[in-house]
Amino acid sequence: SCQSKPPNFLSKTENAHINLKVAGQEGLVIQFIIKRHTPLNKLMKAYCPHLICFEQGLTMQHIRFQFDGQPINETDTPAQLEVEDEDSIDVFQQQTEGLM
């Protein structure tokens, strides 16, 4: 017997790309287009080389990403965080002792 797949009830926007703005402390804002179910570490890694602090030898461990004041984990997706199209993610440099 032939089994048919159940219909896909996800709306077209559910898996669509969304535009996200990533805003750093230096005033640098970069717009990214990302799928709603793509882990945000992809966006984080793409943003980090644009930061001035990377030229000073800092790594991703020194950078914090937040959405609506909540820290973002690398495995989080826009869908999990309920990020909408055109939302902004804030980037902060973590204070590290001994670096000038």
TrEMBL record:
Keywords: Isopeptide bond, Ubl conjugation pathway
Ubiquitin-like domain: residues covered: 16-98
InterPro entries in the record: Rad60/SUMO-like_dom (IPR022617), Ubiquitin-like_dom (IPR000626), Ubiquitin-like_domsf (IPR029071)
Annotated Pfam families: Rad60-SLD
Organism domain of life: Eukaryota
Family the entry assigns: Belongs to the ubiquitin family. SUMO subfamily.
Name used for this protein in its record: Ubiquitin-like domain-containing protein
Organism: Cyprinus carpio
Organism placement in taxonomy: Eukaryota, Metazoa, Chordata, Craniata, Vertebrata
